[in-house]
Amino acid sequence: MQQHQYDVIIVGAGGAGMRAALESSKRTRTAVLTKLYPTRSHTGAAQGGMCAALANVEEDNWEWHTFDTVKGGDFLVDQDAAEVMCREAVDAVLDLEKMGLPFNRTAEGKIDQRFFGGHTRNHGEAVVRRSCFAADRTGHMILQTLYQQCIKQNVEFFNEYYVLDLLMTDGKASGVVAYELATGELHVFSAKSVIFASGGFGKVFRTTSNAHTLTGDGMGIVWRKGLPLEDMEFFQFHPTGLAGLGVLLSEAARGEGGILRNKDNERFMERYAPTVKDLAPRDMVARAMANEVREGRGCGPDGAYVMLDLTHLEPAHIDAKLPDITEFARTYLGVEPYTEQIPVFPTAHYAMGGIPTNIKGEALANNEDVIPGLYAAGEVACVSVHGANRLGTNSLLDINVFGRRAGIAAAEYAATASFEELPANPEAYVVELVEGLRNSTGQERIAAIRADLQATMDLNAQVYRTEGSLKQALVDIAALKERFKNVAVQDKGKRFNTDLLEAVELGFLLDLAEVLVVSALERKESRGGHFREDYDKRDDVNFMRHTMAYREVDADGNETIRLDYKPVVQTRYKPMERKY
Amino acid sequence: MDVKVKILRYNPEVVDEAEWKTYSVTLQPTDRVLDALHKVKWEQDGTLTFRRSCAHGVCGSDAMRINGRNRLACKTLIKDLNPEKEITVEPIKGLPVLKDLVVDMEPFFDAYRSVMPFLVTSGHEPTRERIQSQADRDRFDDTTKCILCAACTTSCPVFWSDGQYFGPQAIVGAHRFIFDSRDEGTEQRLEILNDKEGVWRCRTTFNCTDACPRGIEVTKAIQEVKRALIFRRV
C-alpha cells in the first residue's frame, strides 16, 4: 500500500473535475484521480452546446435563461442556484473561448448560437438561440480544451486509479482510498478537501446513452458512508437515442430544424407542445414519443420507435452543423440522413439527482449542514439546478460553473484547514470489498446480474412508472442483491483486473437502482422526468420538495433506506402549469 | 450468426509469451467488434482485458488491430469484416503491451504533451470572446476532431521502428493550434516539430489517414506542418 498527501483530491477527470482542477491547482497542491484517462470521460460525448445568454445573435438575458431552467425543471429547481448558474454562464462560455475552445462563429466572428429545447425568449414567448456550440461535438471540444489547459498548468493526474472509498474523520472528509488498475495496489490519499466529480449512473438502465463506465461510483461511495442522496427518482430520458442502441443523437438535430414523425408521417409534437413543438423539454418529448408508440403509431416492424426527419435540411447544412450524429446513423443503423428518416427512441441519459450540495459545491450531510472538506460537482451532484428535468445544454454549463466553484471552494478551505488524522487501517474497507470479490467462490456471472438489473429498470422504472411497476423493480433488485453475494470474479490476478472492477461497479449500480426506485415509489405525483401513471398530475401541495435518501444500518447489519425531504428554494418564480 | 474471434492474449502474470486464442460467439451482423469482446468476457472468459468506455467512437479507448488494421472496436461492425472467416483482434503496435489488448499509453500521451497542445496568447485578454471568422475557424476544423485513440500513431511504420518519433497524432495535435488564427505559439511549436524526431521522419505512407476513425486527413495535416516549417508561415 502506498500513501500520498495532497491538499485537494479531485475524483473524476471529466468536465467538472478538470474545471475544478484548473482552479484548485493554481491555488494549492492538487491531484486528480480518474478511473479512465481524462480524455475518455463522458463529457466528450456531449454534443449540442452550452447555453449562455450572450445575446450574440438575438436579444437574450440571463434572467430568461433562469426562468427557462426553473420551468424546464418543473419548479423543483432551487432558484438561487439556477440564478447563479445562468448569470455565470456568460463568463463560463467566454472563459472556454479564451482557453481556446473552437466555437462555431457568426458572420461577425463572434460565438455562434442556436436553438435548443426549452430555451425561450421572454418567459416562453418563442424559442431563442442561446446554445453556444462547436458543430455537434461541443462536449468533445470542452473535454479536450480543459485537458489541454491542464497540460499547460501541469495538473497532476493519477490515471486509471479507481477511488473506492471516502475517508472521514470526525465528520470531515480526510482522504480517499484508490485501487490502481495497472497493479492492483491500493493507495491511501490523505487530503484536506475531496471533490467528487465522477459523473452519473446511467448503466442501471439497458437503453442508455451513457458509457459503460458510468456506474455511479461517486454516489455509491458517499451513499455507503451514510450520507444522503437527493432527488434520485429524477432520471432524464433523452428523446432521440438511436433505436435499439441508445446512442445519443443530439437535440441540436431538432434545434437545426429536425422533426419527429410517427408512422403516419405526422409531426406529432404539434399536438403535445403547440408553441415550441419538437423543441419542448426532453421529458415532454420523451413521453410523447413513448405515448405514440404505446397508442400504435410507432414505426418499424414492431412499431417500437418513431422517426427523426432531417431530409428537408440541406446536406451542406447537415455536414456543417450535425456531422457526428449523422455519421452515427450511417455507421450503426446504415441509414442515410440526407434522404432517410432515422429511427429513434428515448434513452436513459442523465441523473438530475445526486450528492446534495450548496451553490459553493459543498456537500451536505442533511438539509442544512455541510460536510467540511467534501465537495461535489457535475452529474454526481445535485445543487439542484436541474430540478425534475434538466434542459438540454445545461449539463455542460453546470460542470463549468459548479466545477469552477467547487475547485475554488475546496482550495480555499484547504488553505486554512489542516490534515485530519486518518482513521485506523484506512484501507480496511476497500481490502475487504476487493478481496471479498476476488476470492469469491460464487457462480453468478457479473454480466447476467447486470443485464437482469437493466431489464427490470427499463421495464419498470423508465419513462412511465406505477406503484406496481416500481414495487416489482424493488422485488427484482432485492433478488439481484442476493445473487450478487455469490458473484463470480474469474480473473484472480492483480494486473488490469477489469473483471474485478466490473463487479465493484455492479455493486454500486445495485445500490443506486434501489435508491432510485424507493425514492420514486414515495413520490406519488408526476413531475419532470418522473411520471407516475397512477398519479399523473404534479402535486405542489404534497411534493414541492426534494427527496433526501439515507442508508441506515441497524444493529443486526440490516440495511434500510430512510427518506426525508428538503424544501425547494423559490425566489422569483411561483410554480405555474408547464405548457409549451 | 456464429463468428470466430481470434484474440492475441498476453498476461505477464501467467505466461511469458503472447498467444492466440479463438472464441466462438453468436452475434448479429450489426453488432460491433466491441460486442464480440464483451460476449467473450461476460459469457466465457472474464480474464479477457481491454479498455472501453463510450462504445460509440468518441472516447478513443478501444483502438485495436482488427483483421490487421487499426480501428475502434466500437465503430467496427461485424458485417463489414467478412465474418465467415475468423476475425483477428490484437493490440495496437509500437506501444508496450501490458495485458491482452491493453497497451501502455504513456509514451503516446507524452508525445502529445510535448508539442504544447494548448492555446498560446500574449497581451491583455479581451473582455468578450476573441473574434475569429468562420473561415479561420474552418482552417483547423479537421484536426480538432482528434480523440487521442492512437490508431494513427500505432499504424505508422516509422513509429514502429523508432519509438522516439513523435508520431502522427502529436503532429495533428500541434496542427490544431498552428493553424488557429488566435494562437501565438506557432514559432515554438514549429521548432519542436523541426526536431530530428519531428515531422521530417514522416514518409507519407498514409497509414495514419487510413487508420483514423474520425476521418481526419492526417497525412495532409502533416504535410501542411512541413510546408509551414519550410516557408515559416501558416
TrEMBL record, chain A:
Entries under SUPFAM superfamilies matching the protein: FAD/NAD(P)-binding domain (SSF51905), Succinate dehydrogenase/fumarate reductase flavoprotein C-terminal domain (SSF46977), Succinate dehydrogenase/fumarate reductase flavoprotein, catalytic domain (SSF56425)
FAD-dependent oxidoreductase 2 FAD-binding domain location, by residue?
7-396
What cofactors does this protein use? Answer: FAD
Where does the source fall among the domains of life? Bacteria
The family database entries (InterPro entries) matched by this protein are listed as: FAD-dep_OxRdtase_2_FAD-bd, FAD/NAD-bd_sf, FRD_SDH_FAD_BS, Fum_R/Succ_DH_flav-like_C_sf, Fum_Rdtase/Succ_DH_flav-like_C, SdhA/FrdA/AprA, Succ_DH/fumarate_Rdtase_cat_sf, Succ_DH_flav_su_fwd
- One Pfam annotation reads Succ_DH_flav_C
Q: Is this entry keyworded Kinase?
A: no
Catalysis: reaction(s)? a quinone + succinate = fumarate + a quinol
Cellular compartment(s): Membrane
Keywords from the named record: Electron transport, FAD, Flavoprotein, Membrane, Oxidoreductase, Transport, Tricarboxylic acid cycle
Q: Which family does it belong to?
A: Belongs to the FAD-dependent oxidoreductase 2 family. FRD/SDH subfamily.
UniProt protein name: Succinate dehydrogenase flavoprotein subunit
Automatic annotation (TrEMBL), chain B:
Q: Provide the protein name.
A: Succinate dehydrogenase iron-sulfur subunit
For this UniProt record, give its keywords in alphabetical order, as a comma-separated list. Answer: 2Fe-2S, 3Fe-4S, 4Fe-4S, Iron, Iron-sulfur, Metal-binding, Oxidoreductase, Tricarboxylic acid cycle
> Which pathway, per its entry?
Carbohydrate metabolism; tricarboxylic acid cycle
Q: Which cofactors does it use?
A: [4Fe-4S] cluster; [3Fe-4S] cluster; [2Fe-2S] cluster
Has the keyword Transmembrane helix been applied to this entry?
no
**Residues spanning the membrane:** none
Catalysed reaction, written as an equation: a quinone + succinate = fumarate + a quinol
Question: Which residue numbers delimit the 4Fe-4S ferredoxin-type domain?
Answer: 136-158
| Similarity remark | Belongs to the succinate dehydrogenase/fumarate reductase iron-sulfur protein family.
- The superkingdom listed in its UniProt entry is Bacteria
Q: How is the cofactor bound?
A: Binds 1 [4Fe-4S] cluster.
